[in-house]
Specification:
Distance between the termini: 65 Å
Largest sheet: 14 strands, antiparallel
Radius of gyration: 21 Å
Strand content: over 45%
Number of strands: 14
Shape: elongated
Order of helices and strands: EEEEEEEEEEEEEE
CATH superfamily of the largest domain: Histone H3 K4-specific methyltransferase SET7/9 N-terminal domain
CATH topology of the largest domain: Histone H3 K4-specific methyltransferase SET7/9 N-terminal domain
Structural class: mainly beta
CATH architecture of the largest domain: Single Sheet
Length: 165
């Protein structure tokens, strides 16, 4: 059709990358799988050679993202799991953790709240493995503004935080 690739097919790039899936007008469109020569794999939806819609991306170190893409970037809702056991479930924007989401660290800490450019930013609840809980405002990963720290033994500290203190 019109001299361009359409339908189902496979393309092997000069660097060893492989795309196999649906084509329209010589571009990846529809469902497809892209395998990078280094081992990274994306399987999901494509539009005009860019990841678009739902997909799953797995890196050679075992990290994995499953969620929404817009114009080749993580955008919308998704789940990212790191090799060390850490995970994040929530909003993404332009490949960054941004919006509302829940992050669990491998050591047992967790933060449920607002994010901006991969940093805790806005209101949220931070739980420590030893039972402490901080509820309040963050700016660029640091407690900043009104907040309350509840200790495991029942003590409560409420006040204004600045730059993490």
């Amino acid at each position: 059709m019109n001299g361009k690739g359409n339908g189902i097919g496979r393309l092997i790039h000069a660097d060893g990358d492989i795309y196999q899936g649906e084509w329209k007008n010589d571009m990846a469109n529809g469902r497809g799988k892209y395998v990078h020569y280094e081992g990274q794999v994306y399987e999901g939806m494509w539009k005009d050679d860019k990841q678009e819609g739902h997909g799953v991306e797995v890196w050679q170190d075992g990290a994995k993202y499953e969620g929404d893409y817009v114009r080749g970037k993580k955008q919308g809702q998704g789940k990212f799991m790191w090799r060390d056991g850490a995970s994040y479930v929530g909003s993404f924007k332009n490949n960054d953790i941004e919006g509302r989401g829940l992050y669990h660290w491998a050591d047992g800490r967790s933060y449920d709240g607002e994010w901006l450019a991969n940093k805790m930013h806005g209101k949220g609840i931070f739980k420590y493995p030893d039972g402490r809980v901080y509820e309040g405002n963050y700016i660029k990963d640091k407690k900043d503004g009104q907040g309350t720290l509840k200790m495991k033994d029942g003590r409560v500290f409420t006040g204004f935080w600045k730059n993490g203190r």
